[in-house]
């Protein structure tokens, strides 16, 4: 985090120099905030969520430095003499907190899923404090420093690095690209403006002004590496696809600079063009345009996009700059696809690029798992943590392990990150957690340093943890997210009914296919009548208000062949959702009843008066032989009667466009303290990583007079779950416009991210 004010260049260079002290320095991004209000830049909401950081930190700025940047910020009572004030400031040890910087840091932390401590007592699921919240320049003499591990100094004497003393735009661009040297044997002047071409698209030998060397003569003739990568064995890898793979950010503000840096880390290519560069026609002609045009050509071949944007420059001017960058100096012109260069902010999606240690990348392991009833998978053994073959520090240094491990489980479609309490992601057998971990964009990230008992002098394998991880079902994930906000989760009555039907038919997918398929009209024919029908259907018998269908009635409703009808009936009877039986009366009470095949015999008992009857033609009245009828599972009848098929139809519609899909039956949220019901949610689904909250109705509007309350309940649960969108689903052709407008207006105010809204209409057709 850094302040975007008159001293933003000082803040930014200090941030980059601090990042360069630590392992993974090339993996840092900067997020600016308004120092007057403590508000982080809104342009970084999606950037931070895409980037999925392990930690969000403020800078530890020394008191002398802070007093120099902001005279009067440090107040010492009773001291009016400036010289005495300066002397006392120099005696202050440690960093000085910026109150609004702390507020901004807290807000940014709410955008993502950082590392948090796991409480040692297991009495509650809650989000604990973060493990690391501030960062200062490294003290390499501190052997037992807590927090991020300090990177060793480069072993060779030559590196490509910026100097911490630089403050020019070119110097900042260099620091963002390659890192900042820890110390300087000789002072280096600011790099020349013509170095910007290499920084726009690094190729060939770096500018001489960027070479850092120690006082000792070089012991190697190898090409110097960048400071960010020195001695760490880091490589940048891709984990997903995004159309945007490059950016040009125009402007002189700290926000513009930080956005270009973030795009560089996330997309792979981020170019910052301040006015100092744009104002030099010669540099633009010789350095910037050729580099940008080469970048455009690369992206065009890859069918990717380059975005041109700014947080401070008017859109028209940005458009003119974009046109200028594409203009060739010479007579020839090359055709640029209109889709290649676009005037907008980048769609970062799920961050495609990140740095990893070049060891064990993509390694696969097999874990024995046990499955809970709700579908959650629990590891039966601890994960053997991969150990890099080369370490930064010796085992005796007290500074290992120093790496983090990223784990993704095959087939796990539960929502990623979103700050679910870490205690839900692991199985703990004792008081102490095995490791510190967090929910990440790939699954789970953990610090392998053991949190349990580690004897003194242990070798490395004895000092790393082996967590027993869990792959959560969506129901378990929802329960974990809700518990952190003081809410409990249970099945509502329709949800319980849907689960009972699901258990008989098989999987949730089987239930969606059954209800959303051609069998729906047939299933609805079993819904009890509100009053006894006047007309008589020879293929339907109504006992009380419950209809029973014959084979012919089912066939007519399926609108299919006899063979297909037999197949459907066989599936449903095998699942015990349909029962085959006879409609028989009683010789004494005379009332007809349905007797399923299991209760039939030559002698049978009347279900209503317990009289024993003989199975003769008098009992079935019509026909020489009785005709089979079918009864639907009573719970299924009740579910359909209460329009419980509508949420299932909505789920089926959402799953059709999904590569990865999970959902839940209707859930009821209640307060853990007191048990008061908060809301009932018809469907919660995970669609391609998005969390969707669904309100499903047979009508096309909220209950009369209750729109405001129902929208508040939807939004509260959506915010608890960090949902991406709310869907209104209906059997009708559309949803009432006034309801949709009200929901969209309120959803746009949701924090930390506005919620999108959508309507699914004409379900089941």
Automatic annotation (TrEMBL):
InterPro entries per UniProt: Restrct_endonuc-II-like (IPR011335)
Name assigned to this protein: Uncharacterized protein
